[in-house]
Amino acid sequence: xxxxxxxxxxxxxxxxxxxxxxxxxxxxxxxxxxxxxxxxxxxxxxxxxxxxxxxxxxxxxxxxxxxxxxxxxxxxxxxxxxxxxxxxxxxxxxxxxxxxxxxxxxxxxxxxxxxxxxxxxxxxxxxxxxxxxxxxxxxxxxxxxxxxxxxxxxxxxxxxxxxxxxxxxxxxxxxxxxxxxxxxxxxxxxxxxxxxxxxxxxxxxxxxxxxxxxxxxxxxxxxxxxxxxxxxxxxxxxxxxxxxxxxxxxxxxxxxxxxxxxxxxxxxxxxxxxxxxxxxxxxxxxxxxxxxxxxxxxxxxxxxxxxxxxxxxxxxxxxxxxxxxxxxxxxxxxxxxxxxxxxxxxxxxxxxxxxxxxxxxxxxxxxxxxxxxxxxxxxxxxxxxxxxxxxxxxxxxxxxxxxxxxxxxxxxxxxxxxxxxxxxxxxxxxxxxxxxxxxxxxxxxxxxxxxxxxxxxxxxxxx
Length: 463
Known about the structure:
The chain has helices at residues 16-22, 25-28, 32-48, 54-72, 85-97, 99-102, 110-146, 166-189, 210-216, 226-231, 234-261, 288-311, 326-348, 354-359, 368-377, 382-399, 408-412, 428-434, 443-462; strands at residues 151-156, 159-165, 193-194, 221-222, 268-269, 351-352. By secondary structure, it is mainly alpha-helical. Helix 3 crosses helix 7 (110-146) and helix 7 (110-146) runs antiparallel to helix 8 (166-189).
């Protein structure tokens, strides 16, 4: 059994049951790179401040770099009895370079160490996920451009409501994922303060230079309160919220793809490379990729809930409960990353049926609102216009007809305000053209939105 860092206080060894129950190295070893980077900065600062000999600091840094190489070439031996990534690395360092390695933890606790590692890890992962979001945004804008001018029914309550452009519908998801991209940027701004130097909870009595390590590790400031710094997991909750909401957006898109790929809709054909078949029914082509994205969303919401429940009753400062923040976070990082990659590939390989989409606008009285708006423009109060149009729809339903089959004379039986020009507004194209407001589905407005979206992506490329 490996020697514990707190062994001096205890007469008896930790039980095997407790060893298995409390170890975290099986999952937190993925923090090895951040742990080593933080330890190198800490060792360099200790040497510069004369807290440890500079030669020891040099040996520590060389030893840590060697351990990083061992981990990355898979020759490092992880020992569960040493509990976590931090003690595994420190123990290996001491074995390799001797007493100098024992000086590394001077003026530092695992409490501020893990707070540092986790912030650095999420900063990197948020940046990487933002890159994945940009790739999905590019796919959406490319697909919207490919089907520019294609119209379809817009839905509310899953009932055909008003005609829209397919590109307008796709750009709605662009806006969702753009917000996710911005939300992660805002999240990264909350990671500006380094907790290193907070110690276990009260700071340290050594003359350390917190600003030096903060600057070296990419932080713009140091934390203002040592107790808050070691117990703070707000940043984890913020990341999990941002990740869960992004996954919810993916799930909404996945749901529509699943519906649209069904025989009942037949709006879209999915690529074979992102679909599966049935082990029994040879005709089947299932949208499993979209279903999995939708299904994994529950885990993402659960991960956020898990952390919030863990945090809600914790007293100051560090408590071992906080070990439970790692697995939900790692799972959310992996799940969201995979979902973004799959959705980008799925959408890029999908093809929309223009004829089917446009034919679907024929039924369902999809221009009824335009008919009501026509009456309003003639001076009829909107509520009266709404009622008149509703009666026209009811009459068409009774007679098995659609609005475009109505004559002016028939329309005038419902209101004297109808004239010949009323028939012109019943076409889908006329309906689209009239939605000429910022954010509307008029072709020119959608083109403007797509140009602005392309400019947004181009700006990201230059940042």
